[in-house]
Amino acid sequence: MLKLEPRTAPRAWLNLVLPLIAIIVTLVLCSGLIAISGASIVEAYSVMLSGALGSKLNVTETLVRATPMIFTGLAVTVAFRAKFWNIGAEGQLMAGAVAAAVVGAYPMPGPLAMLLMALAGAAAGALVALVPGLLRVKLKVDDVVSSLLLNSVVFYAVMAAIEGPWKDPFSGYPISPPIEDSAALPRLIEGTRLHLGVLAAFVAAGLVWLLLSRTTLGFRIRVVGENAEAARYGGIAVGRVIVITALISGALAGLAGVGEVGGVHFQVMSDLSPGYGYSGIVIAMLARLNPLGVVPAAIFLAIVMTGAEAMSRATGVPVFLADVIQGTALLAMLVALLFTGYRLRRVKGVA
Amino acid sequence: MSAVLDQVLQLGFLAAILRIATPLLFATLGEMFSERAGVLNLGIEGIMLISAMTGFSGAYFSGSLWIGVAVAIATGALFGLVHAILTVALGLSQHVAGIGLTLFTSGLAYFLFRLLFGQQSVPPSIKGFTTLPIPGLAELPYVGPLLFNQFALVYAAFLAVPISAFLLYATPWGLALRMTGENPRAADSAGISVIGKRFQAVVLGGALMGVAGAFLSMAQFNAFTFGVISGRGWVAIALVVFGRWDPWRCTAAALLFAAIDALQLRLQAAGLGHIPYEVFLILPFLLTIVAMALVSRNAVAPAALLKPFRKEER
Fold first, then answer.
1. Given this model, what pLDDT does residue B296 score?
2. Cβ of A35 under 8 Å from any chain B Cβ?
3. How far does the CA of residue A164 sit from the closest CA of chain B (Å)?
4. Which residue numbers in chain A have pLDDT < 50?
5. Within chain B, where are the H helices?
C-alpha cells in the first residue's frame, strides 16, 4: 500500500513543478464541466487561450486584469510568510480604492495626484490590515476570522458612502464621483488600457522579493513565520514584526485598489473588485509564497478570466468556469503541497 | 384603531425575526458542530450558495419542495465531506482550504445554474414554502400567529437548537466530539477515533448549512439569485464566535442579529432613511470583532481549532 511519510530535504524543483501539476490537474478536472456543457474541450480551452493572448489588445487586457491580482497576491504572500493569516485583502483593496478616488477628485498636477493617490491608497489598506494585526498581537484575537469579517465591514461602509453622501450627483447609479482626468494613470500603449499601474505591479513584485530575501526585515518576517518561538528566543520582537507585516500586506492590497481606480474605473462602484482579494490567496499559494512566482500565477488567473469571456461567447460554456478553475486550482495546489513535506512511499504488507 | 394596527405590526415584526433567524440558525449550528470538533469551515458561504442552487433546482424539476430540501441537505453534506477530506484526512490548512472550497462551490453553483436554466431575463422561480399553521395552537391569541403559523423549516430550526444542545452536552457522542476539539491526544488515548468524529461533525455541519441555503432559495426568496446568500455564511462564522460555540448562546446571537436585520428592513420600508441601512448590516461583523477582542483572553474557542491531527505524530 501507499503511505505518506515526511520528506527529509525539501526539493527546490518542486517549486516549479507543483504549481504546473496543480494547474494541469485543474484543467483536466474542469474539462468535465466543459463536456457536460456540450462543447468541445479542445475548442473551449483554445478559444480561452486565444481570447486572452490572441492579439495585442487581448494581451494588454490580460495584463490589466492581472495587475490588481499581482498586488493582492503579493499582499497575501508577505502576510502568509509571517503566518499572519490575512484573508482581508478584498476589504483592504476597497479601502485603497476609496482613498485613491477621494484624493484623485481634487484638481492638482497629474504626477502629484498619482503620487498622493498611491500613498493614500497604501495607507488606507495598511490601516484596515492593522486592525487584525493589532488585535492578534495585543489581544490574541484570531486573525483569520477578524480579517475576513472586516471585508464585509469595509464593503458595506463603501456601499453606504456611494449610495449616500459620496454618490456622484451626475449619475443615476450608486458610484462615487470620478477622479480628475489629470489624475488618471497614463497609458503605456495608445489605444489600449495598459496603464502605468501594470508596470508598477511588476516593479512591486521585484521589490517585495528584495524585501523578503535581501533585507533584515524580510529575514525577520520569514523567521517569525517559520518558527515564532525560535524567533522570540533569538531576540526578535515577534509582535512588532507581525504588525509591520500586516501594514506592508495591507498597503500592497490597497495599491491594488489604487490601480483599479487610477487606471481602469476612475471611480468607486460596488463591483469594483470581483473578488481580487480572494484571488490573491489562490495566487500566493500557486506561487508557493514566492513574490516572483506571484507574477506568472496572477497572469495565469488573468488568462483564465479574460479568456473565459471569449470562450463563453464562442462555445456557450458558462463564463463561471473561470471561478470554478480558480477554486479548483487553489484546492489542487493545497493537495500538491503535501508532496513537499511528505512523499508517497510504497509500503510492503498492510499497516 | 391605531393601537390594533400597532399590535399587528408588532406581531408581524416578531414573526419576521423568527423567519430571518432561521437560515442563520441552521448555518450557525452547522459551523458550531464543525468548530467544536476542531475544524473551521470557511467553505460555509459557498456551501450555502450551492445548496441553495441544488435545492431550488431539485424543487423546480421534481415539483416537490421537500425533495428540494433533501437535495440541498445532500449537497451540503457532500461538500462538508470534501472539506473533511481536505482538512481532516489530508490535514491541509483549514482556512485556505475553506476559502478554496467557497471559491470552488460558488463558481460551480453559478456554472451549473446557468447550464440548467440558461440566461433568462426573468430568473426562474418556484412556489415556495407556505406557512404551516399548527392546528389548535395557531389560533391562540398573540403567540399563535407568532410561534405557530410559520414555515415548517422555522419550527425545524428552533427544534434543532435543543437537539443540538442535547447531542453536544448529554450524549457520549457529544462528549467525544468536544474532546476531539479540545484535546485530540486525550481523546485518542481514550480510544475515540478523532478522525472519525471530525468527519461526522464536518459532514453534519455541511448538511445543516445546506438546509440554511435551501431556506433562502425555497422559503425566503423562492428563486436562486446571485445575492441569495450575500454574506450570511460569514455572518454565521461571526455568530459562532459571538455565541461562544454554545448552541443556546448562538441562538441568542442569531435572534439578536435577526432582530437588527428585521428592524433595518422595517425602517427602510417605512422610509425612515436617516440611518443608512448598511449600518445595520455592518453591526454583526463589527460587534463580533469587538466581542472577540473582549473574550479572546478567556480562550473559549475549542483549543484544537485549526490544528490538524495525525495519529502517528507525538
1. 60
2. no
3. 8
4. 350-351
5. 2-36, 44-62, 65-84, 94-117, 143-147, 152-170, 172-182, 184-189, 194-215, 232-242, 247-269, 278-295
Which residue type does A50 have? S
> For testing the chain A interface, which of B35, B45, B103 should be mutated: the one with the most A CBs within 10 Å?
B103
Q: How many CB pairs under 8 A join A and B?
A: 139
pLDDT tens per residue, range A6-56 = 665 566 777 889 999 999 999 999 999 999 999 999 999 999 999 999 999
Task: Give the DSSP H/E element, type plus range, for residue A56.
Answer: helix A56-81
Q: Which residues 69-98 in chain A show a CB within 8 A of chain B?
A: 85, 87
> CA separation (Å) from A179 to A110, A170, B122, B167, B280?
11, 13, 36, 57, 30
**Any residues with CB less than 8 A from the CB of A4 and at least 6 apart, and which?**
A338, A342, A343, A344, A345
Q: Is A59 on the interface with B (CB under 8 A)?
A: no
Give contacts of A320 with chain B, Cβ < 8 Å: 107-108, 110-111, 114
- Sign of the alpha-carbon dihedral angle for B2, B8, B11, B16: negative
In the predicted structure, residue B235 carries a pLDDT above the cut 70: yes
Round to whole Å and give the CA distance between B27 and B231.
12
Chain A residues 124-163 within an 8 A CB cutoff of chain B: 131, 135, 139-142, 144-146, 148-153, 156-157, 159-160, 163
Query: What's the CA angle centered on A60, arms A56 and A63, to 5 degrees?
Result: 140
C-alpha cell at B40: 473551521
- B99 vs A87, A145, A160: nearest CB: A87
- Does an H or E element contain A197, and which? helix A196-214
| A297 Cα distance to chain centroid | 10
Lowest model confidence (mean pLDDT) among A176-190, B233-247, B258-272: B258-272
Closest chain B CA to residue A144: B95
**Range B284-289 average pLDDT:** 85
Q: What percent of chain B has pLDDT over 90?
A: 64
Say which amino acid occupies B128: G
Interchain CB distance below 8 Å, A144 and B106? no
